[in-house]
Amino acid sequence: MDVSGIRFEAAELDAVTPASRIVVAYRHKAGTVAEVACSWTACRFAGRGRSARTRGEHVELRPIGTIRSPFTAREGMPIQPAGAAEVAGTVELLPEFAPGLQDLDGFSHIILLYLFDRSRGYDLTVVPFMDTVPRGVFATRAPKRPNPLGLSVVALTGITGRILHVMGVDILDGTPLLDIKPYVPAFDAPPECRTGWLAEVAEAARERRADDRFA
Hints:
Blueprint: E1 2-3, E2 6-12, E3 21-28, E4 33-39, E5 53-55, E6 58-60, E7 65-68, E8 88-93, E9 109-115, E10 125-126, E11 135-136, E12 149-160, E13 163-167, E14 175-182, H1 185-188
Antiparallel strand pairs: 1-2, 2-3, 3-4, 5-6, 7-8, 7-14, 8-13, 9-12, 9-14, 10-11, 12-13
């Protein structure tokens, strides 16, 4: 189907991959393609052992694990980590990536980068959860985006093997994890910032909950 200039296709490739693996292609009008192979059981991309790669306009990424949370539906869940301060979750890394967790326990907070795998299509102007008027999608945190990537800063409370225990989870259960980075205030929190239209409403994120507008 065509949604706002994006052609979305999903097909099980039983002859090529296990039945539990779904290949998803986002195709722009101009022809750029990003193909994602996401296993519902292991949540890994095709091409095990290879890092992300670029071939012309074709970009491949591989999930490194799965994010677990209490949220199985978007409606009613927090819209930012600020509204999920007491929500516990886990990050389950695939075994092959476990060595990359070395030294991460020295950080109190981490940045999770993930795929909005249940978002379909996008609009370049949206009415965000925090407002009632249309805004440019790049001036919002809306989940339906040209490249459906999410970012959350969460508190790291412990590591057990390849399982990260985190707090402040505003992410759907089963979300594919793309990367983990340590949060460092000196790098990630500029001393003087302007926050545009969010300046007067940002605090409301602690209480605001998601609805069905981006379903």
